[in-house]
Amino acid sequence: MADSESLVIETTEMHTGGEPVRIVTSGYPPIPGATILAKRRHAREHLDHLRRMLMFEPRGHYDMYGVIPVEPNLPKVDLAVLFMHNEGYSTMCGHAVIALGRWAVDTGRVPLREPETRVNIQCPCGLVRARVAIENGRAGAVRFESVPAFAFALDAPVEVPGHGRIMVDIGYGGAFYALVPASVFGLDVRRSAVRDLVDAAVRVTEAAKAQIPLSHPDDPDLAFLYGTILTDGSDTYGSEPTANICVFAEREVDRSPTGSGVTARIAVQHARGLIELGQERLFESVTGARFTGRAVARTTAGPFDAVTVEVGGQAYYTGSCRFTVEPDDSLGSGFLLR
Question: Is 324 exposed, middle or buried (0-12, 13-18, 19+ CB in 10 A)?
Answer without folding.
Answer: middle
